[in-house]
Specification:
Layout: H1 5-13, H2 16-29, H3 34-45, H4 49-57, H5 62-68, E1 81-82, E2 85-86, H6 93-109, H7 114-117
Antiparallel strand pairs: 1-2
Pfam families: DUF2200
Organism: Chryseobacterium caseinilyticum
Protein name: DUF2200 domain-containing protein
Length: 120
């Protein structure tokens, strides 16, 4: 699938707090924990539980969320297809970061070992 400017804008304006409960539901319905979800988010963004909660409480957009994040240097190792997009081919930096997060959460929900998810 080819990314479009409209799609990139939609991701940028999406409120992280509106998506976060879906992340929790997805991983918990597959037998994983909220703590594991937070571990994955912290690995990617550098946000500990307190900072993550601040982002949720402030109802920041994905654009602000990733602007404030310190992306893990190993995030480039996240490859594959998510939501019909090949991560390696996504040109917009924000959309790519959002898809990194989607991919990690998908791997968590699919039961991958944490070492593999965190690219260790």
């Amino acid at each position: 699938m080819k990314e479009t400017e409209k799609h990139n804008e939609k991701i940028a304006k999406l409120i992280f707090a509106s998506v976060y409960p879906h992340y929790v539901t997805k991983v918990e319905s597959k037998g994983r924990t909220k703590e594991e979800l937070h571990q994955v988010i912290e690995w990617l963004t550098g946000f500990n539980g307190t900072k993550l909660q601040e982002m949720i409480d402030e109802k920041v957009t994905f654009e602000t969320f990733f602007d404030k994040a310190t992306l893990n240097p190993d995030a480039e190792l996240i490859t594959g297809t998510i939501c019909g997009y090949k991560i390696e081919e996504i040109e917009n930096p924000l959309t790519k970061k959002a898809r990194y997060l989607d991919k990690l959460i998908d791997e968590l929900a699919k039961g991958k070992k944490m070492e593999k998810i965190l690219r260790q």
